Amino acid sequence: MNNFNYKGVGVALITPFNADGSVDFGALGRMMDSVIDGGVDYIVALGTTAETPAIVQDEREAIARYIKSLNNNRVPLVIGIGGNCTKEVIDAIVRFDLRGFDAVLSVAPYYNRPSQEGIYQHYKAISQASPLPIILYNVPSRTGVNITAETTLRLAHLPNIIGIKEASGNMEQIRTILREKPEDFFVLSGDDALTLDIMDEGGLGVISVAANSFPKSFCRMIHAQLAGNKAEARAIESKLMPSMKMLFEEGNPTGVKTALYAKGLIQPFLRLPMVFGSESLVDRLRVAVAENE
């Protein structure tokens, strides 16, 4: 797995729960089989879509162990470890058993709203402490701070930082990164709806929410784009787009979990403060799932 280049589809895997709030490991296993059989190129465990902010450390370690065990080297694995306290992030990286994982996806420090220099020093410190390469994650709609193109390019020259998941929605910023980055630094879309646009500019692929719900269709779209079949990719995108937008109407992972419940893969539970989707969303996503798989 060490030579994996992060092209294609990474899925930001959800965490299923039981009615009592405990992790539903049986459903987690079904989810892994579903996305791998659907064609994803790698799995991202314990990202935002996994409701990780509402999962305690012991549970995170149990989830990571389970995913590694059930994966059994079928696809590469990335693990999400990030936060707004640099020391806690470093402590978590040092404490975690990272064997079986290929990289760490680390979200920009949130809420504190650090300066660009603060963001740079945060990532520099965790990259120096991590035994695995770091993928930056820029998602200002959630964190309250944007990693600018200038800061990304500065970080791209650090030896243990290998790429970025870009979910700023700012295509000019993304184009600047793609135009000026080192050759071995990659850019992934963090926004399903913009993925083909970003790939048209030189991005390698996506870490996707929608690939949980529609793995076969979504992977066909991205793999067609990688193969140069852009018309086919855009045709699939046109069909998928209304359903992808539906996934975010009531927040993430509310939408994707609602779709997965409609597919019969998981139970209808999230951890507060997240709640399950409305009856209307369930009904519409049940139709969307049938149309796109």
Structure report:
The chain has 293 residues and is of the alpha/beta class. 46% of the residues lie in helices and 13% in strands. It has an eight-stranded parallel β-barrel, surrounded by five helices. Helix 3 runs parallel beside helix 4 and helix 10 (215-226) packs antiparallel against helix 11 (230-246).
Report a brief summary of the structure:
The chain is of the alpha/beta class and 293 residues long. Helices cover 46% and strands 13% of the residues.
Number of helices: 13
CATH class: Alpha Beta
Radius of gyration: 18 Å
State the separation between the terminal residues, measured CA to CA.
29 Å
Residues in helix, %: 40-55%
Secondary-structure topology with pairs:
Layout: E1 8-12, H1 25-38, E2 42-45, H2 57-71, E3 77-80, H3 86-95, E4 103-107, H4 116-129, E5 134-138, H5 140-143, H6 149-155, E6 161-166, H7 171-180, E7 186-189, H8 195-200, E8 205-208, H9 210-213, H10 215-226, H11 230-246, H12 254-262, H13 279-292
Parallel strand pairs: 1-2, 1-8, 2-3, 3-4, 4-5, 5-6, 6-7, 7-8
Helix pairs in contact: 1-2, 1-10, 3-4, 4-6, 6-7, 10-11, 11-13, 12-13
Features:
13 helices; 293 residues; TIM Barrel; globular; alpha/beta; eight-stranded parallel barrel; 8 strands
